[in-house]
Amino acid sequence: MTDSLTIAGKTYNSRLIVGTGKYKSYQQNADAARAAGAEIVTVALRRVNLSDPEQERLTDFVKPDEFTYLPNTAGCYTADEAVRTLRLAREAGGWNLVKLEVLADQKTLYPNMPETLEAAKALIADGFEVMVYCSDDPVYAKMLEDAGCCAIMPLGSLIGSGLGIMNPVNIRLIVEQTRVPVIVDAGVGTASDAAMAMELGCDGVLMNTAIAAAKDPIMMASAMKHAVIAGREAYLAGRMPKKMYADPSSPLAGLI
Amino acid sequence: MLVTVNGETRSVQPGTTIAMLITQLAGESGKDQRGIAIERNLEIVPKSEHACTVIEEGDRIELVQFVGGG
């Protein structure tokens, strides 16, 4: 069975997108991304460290010809900062596919939705394909889809919190109303969280800390790969209805 | 003459181009410039123009590259 994920016209076999932050080394990062079976990795854009320009470079380990780079706007708190950052990312990499996130405050890293919507419109007008990190508010999710975003990426819970999917009802509402891929971005802590996101009907999961902060990031990356596949297959298979009382699995006829 | 590169004041020779500045400052990233981008006074300087863009006194240059991030 072919069950691929298409984002902005490009098809991927993996439904798990991983970050490249917080790893012990870029080598471990690359090993984890491979163990996760990821085809897309998020990356950040920062000033070249001029006092130590010879330090290791991400691009030498997590190579752009092996993984699709998804530049993010982490650390941006206004629409203008996010647009400026992604224009630089496009110049650096030459790609139009980007992850937009405009944050509200450092304590929660919760998305600032008015600024996010404004930035999305500006970026789409400028030719970008925008995958957008957003709150789990179905109303704003619809506005972002109508603005032309190519993937809607609601948080499961706060970035880096590992609390899992705090509002599965809202995630499900967003899945039901959205015609572009829905990818849970942020909050996944362990494999069951990723499976839950997929069982809710999401098209994919994006995570960073759940893998990078595990005691064994490579094994956790593998666990997440299997969780996403398991959750996806369970969703497609269609779960049994829940019942209040027991229903025997063995036949009642022929009892001795 | 003085310019600002990534927030730090630097002295460069008059006539220095963007391409020369990258080679002088950016080490390995300067040798392989595929993954970097330049902004000069808030305007992106495309790679095709690095060699012909001459830096002027007081320019504010940003030199950025991809790093790990979530």
UniProtKB/TrEMBL annotation, chain A:
One of its GO terms (molecular function) is thiazole synthase activity. Its main location: cytoplasm. Keywords: Cytoplasm, Schiff base, Thiamine biosynthesis, Transferase. It is found in: Cytoplasm. Residues 6-251 form the Thiazole synthase ThiG domain. GO terms for cellular component: cytoplasm. The keyword Ion transport does not apply. Gene3D superfamilies: Aldolase class I. The keyword Cytoplasm applies. The active site is at K99. It catalyses: [ThiS sulfur-carrier protein]-C-terminal-Gly-aminoethanethioate + 2-iminoacetate + 1-deoxy-D-xylulose 5-phosphate = [ThiS sulfur-carrier protein]-C-terminal Gly-Gly + 2-[(2R,5Z)-2-carboxy-4-methylthiazol-5(2H)-ylidene]ethyl phosphate + 2 H2O + H(+). Pathway: Cofactor biosynthesis; thiamine diphosphate biosynthesis. Pfam families: ThiG. 1-deoxy-D-xylulose 5-phosphate binds at G160, A186, G187, N208, T209. Catalyzes the rearrangement of 1-deoxy-D-xylulose 5-phosphate (DXP) to produce the thiazole phosphate moiety of thiamine. Sulfur is provided by the thiocarboxylate moiety of the carrier protein ThiS. In vitro, sulfur can be provided by H(2)S. Homotetramer. Forms heterodimers with either ThiH or ThiS. Belongs to the ThiG family. HAMAP family: ThiG. This is Thiazole synthase. It comes from Hyphomonas pacifica.
Automatic annotation (TrEMBL), chain B:
PANTHER family: SULFUR CARRIER PROTEIN THIS. Pfam families: ThiS. It comes from the Bacteria. InterPro entries: Beta-grasp_dom_sf, Mopterin_synth/thiamin_S_b, Thi_S, ThiS/MoaD-like. This is Uncharacterized protein.
